[in-house]
Amino acid sequence: MSAIRRIIARADRFLLLLIATVALAAVLPARGSAVAWVEHGTTLAVALLFLLYGARLAPQAIWAGLAHWRLQLLVFASTFVLFPLIGVGLSAALRGWLPEPIVTGLLFLCLLPSTVQSSIAFTSIARGNVPAALCSASLSNLIGVVLTPLLVAQLLTSASGGLSLEALRDIALQILLPFVIGQLIRPWVQGWLHAHPVLTKVVDRGSVLVVVYAAFSAGVVAGLWTQLSPLALLAILALSLLILAIVMGATTLASRAIGFGVADEIATVFCGSKKSMASGIPMAAILFPSHRVGLIVLPLMIFHQVQLFVCAGMARRYAARPPE
């Protein structure tokens, strides 16, 4: 119980920081020469984020967990097949009913990899298969570094004009190259990073806040926020709950149909239903025009909060089951 409260408390603090950052961008958006400084800061923050991702991600954990291939395949199918299919269906149904950047954001949300920290934390709280969750979440992030931009290029061509050569260059320089460098230097820095977790937390959250400020600031300057109504915000919240309910229901039923035990079902449900805001917002800053990013990442920011609170309740329910 106390572990769940700590997760929710951390989420609440970070949510307050996100709200404060959005408010700052609304009151003091970057203009003139300040725009270049914000863009440079965003580039540096994203590169540093993926450098540390590479340095923290243990390939050994992925290889060790691949023996449970049915669980890994089910999580992969949920993350990169079921979610995108839901996103494509919703975007087709909602286009014309919601602002176009919001519709694009809902589809982009469905193309992202799973989270690592919260997937493992909730699996542990629920007394699930933690090693399998570690493998699934890590593998999802590793694949997502490459697959998410490819899915965006394939499925969001009409919405975003496809990926330009400049965007592909930015992906290579700001995501892939730092990630590879992080993997290469991991043997020398992993111990130090493990001993200084505050650094990775500051970089994780700081990079998101920097990108959120840049994105919302550009949206304010471009006047995009006049497109958003309170009804649209309620629609995003309802759609987030709908998407999460579909995926959690599907992964639960599939786990039971395959014959997984409860511990494996828990790992599958929590890893297969999450979407990473920590990597999604920086990716959006690279993949989409700066003046549109603010509205595009809004569905992801709302879905992130929804998944934390819903999964906290699910973890509490799983944890209350009798010992096996």
From TrEMBL:
It comes from the Bacteria. The keyword Chaperone does not apply. GO terms for cellular component: plasma membrane. The chain crosses the membrane at residues 44-66, 73-94, 106-126, 133-155, 167-185, 206-225, 231-254, 266-288, 294-315. Pfam families: SBF_like (PF13593). Keywords: Membrane, Transmembrane, Transmembrane helix. This is Membrane protein. It comes from Sphingomonas endophytica.
